[in-house]
């Protein structure tokens, strides 16, 4: 098993996964965030290279043909994808990686890479989710309804995730993701070299 550990966090739009992921990274700054590429334009509060790597659709399609993405999907007319090279290099070198991607992309990663941890975030209720989407104020009512309908498809994917977090209290949800990370870092299977070294080390 690679020394590097990677966590994939998925959720329906509006469930709060980005904020929960930020909470984990504030607690553990050494965790690297895998910045996805997208062909959609940035929102007013988003920074290129931090929230997403924003590229044109033509550029994105070119990178697909070149095999640059571990996974990519199209959502609501826009393309999203995760860099294959970035993930392979970072995990191989022993770092810990956090990926914030939707369930179709997460499933593709699970097929290609072993040892990942998969976490699904849910809102308290469907009504809460709809309210959060409406409060964003940056999308049309048609897009909001499309995102809301997507929830039913995403719920079918929960069965293969390792953990589920209900985001009814943000602080609690962040602590739950932190707890998952700490527990996984302490797994015996991830510490075989350290255990072997401890057994072989002389007392004097």
Brief rundown of the structure:
With about 200 residues, this protein is of the alpha/beta class.
The largest sheet is: 5 strands, parallel
Total of DSSP H or I helical runs spanning 4+ residues: 8
Helix content: 40-55%
User: What's the shape?
Assistant: globular
- Integer average pLDDT: 87
| Cα radius of gyration in angstroms | 18 Å
How would you characterize this protein structure?
The protein starts with a strand and ends with a helix. The protein has a domain at 5-35 and 94-200: Rossmann fold (3-Layer(aba) Sandwich), CATH 3.40.50. The mean pLDDT is 87. It is α/β, with parallel strands linked by helices and 204 residues long. The protein is globular and about 70 Å long. The protein has helices at 17-27, 57-65, 84-92, 103-112, 126-136, 141-155, 170-185, 192-200, and strands at residues 5-10, 32-34, 37-38, 53-54, 69-75, 78-83, 96-100, 117-122, 163-166. The longest helix has 16 residues, at 170-185. The strands form 2 sheets. Strands 2-7-1-8-9 form a 5-stranded parallel beta sheet, sandwiched between helices. Helix 1 crosses helix 7 and helix 5 (126-136) packs antiparallel against helix 6.
List the helices and strands and how they pair.
Layout: E1 5-10, H1 17-27, E2 32-34, E3 37-38, E4 53-54, H2 57-65, E5 69-75, E6 78-83, H3 84-92, E7 96-100, H4 103-112, E8 117-122, H5 126-136, H6 141-155, E9 163-166, H7 170-185, H8 192-200
Parallel strand pairs: 1-7, 1-8, 2-7, 3-4, 8-9
Antiparallel strand pairs: 3-6, 5-6
